[in-house]
Amino acid sequence: MKRGIFALGMAAALGFNATAAMAETKLRISLQLPLKSHLGQNLIEFKTEVEKAAGSDLIVEIYDSAQLYKDKEVPQAVGSGAIEMGVASLTRFVGDVPAVDVFYMPFMLNNQKAVRKAVSPDSPVRKPLDEAIMDTGSRVLWWQAYGGAILLSKDGPIKSPADMKGKKVRVFGKTLGEFTKATGGSPTLISGSEQYLAYQRGTVDIGMTGVSGVKSRKLWEVMDTITVTNHADIEFIVLVNEDFWQDLTEKQREIITAAALKAEMSVRDKVEQIEKDAFAAAKENGMTVYTPTDAEIAEWKKASEPVFADFLKNAGDLGKQVFEAAQKM
Hints:
This protein is of the alpha/beta class. The chain has helices at 2-23, 38-54, 74-80, 112-119, 126-133, 174-182, 195-201, 211-216, 242-247, 250-284, 294-303, 305-314, 316-327; strands at 25-30, 58-63, 85-89, 138-153, 168-171, 186-189, 207-210, 225-227, 233-241, 288-290. The chain has a single domain (2-327), classed as Bacterial extracellular solute-binding protein, family 7 (D-Maltodextrin-Binding Protein, domain 2, 3-Layer(aba) Sandwich), CATH 3.40.190. It is built from 13 helices and ten strands. Strands 1, 2, 3, 4, 7, 8, 9 and 10 form an eight-stranded mixed sheet that branches.
């Protein structure tokens, strides 16, 4: 009799454990940047909000510094369901949705007022892009502001296109490559997590990134000058696998959506101060920060005009649609 009661007790305990295990849903997120970066900290904010609202029902795990996937691998990993969530540079979707590179049109969206209008969830620039990305198997949960694109170099600033001539330049997207070629350089596609070694080894002569990445990756150890061109708006997007999303309960989706919206507003509001702090840190660590004159910016704009024609030629009807919308911003 006692043995029977013991067996029933074990079965009940096992059943309880199985139910608990089934109730716990994990959201694994792949991030190429260090956790201390502002995108990493933004994911921590999201994790805190989700787990606070859901308790043990939803568990968020963050795998930073490209532990699981490099930036270029994230769209496929999330779209295929290999991982539930991931963070990728917007331009990583240019193969499937060429129109995403509207954010990398030289000097088009180069101030925060215009950027905020363009990235608003219901804007005529962002909304069609989010919808197009859905066809890859991933849903966009939120956009993460990364700031303006800058140039990195050694032994002096990159003041004009003449300084790009014949130089190998690190880029992280197709249109940035076209911009590099139009201004006289030779583009080399290098993942963010591989930047440090590329600069250290001399794989490229000039870097292209956001200033917050200079701080989080300590790029002042391998480069000594920043040129503040702000020639493109760098955006990252946080994705979730669509099949996984549909399998969640309505309550779980509500919790994740609310946390995502809060995280998006938080990082967007902080990005200007984040950039200021990063520039200050760069200077404190020996870097020279150069801001081009209006005349020099005019040179950059003129040299990069072919990039617009190339984009409109290759980005299809959607590209033309979002390009025209972005111009009005």
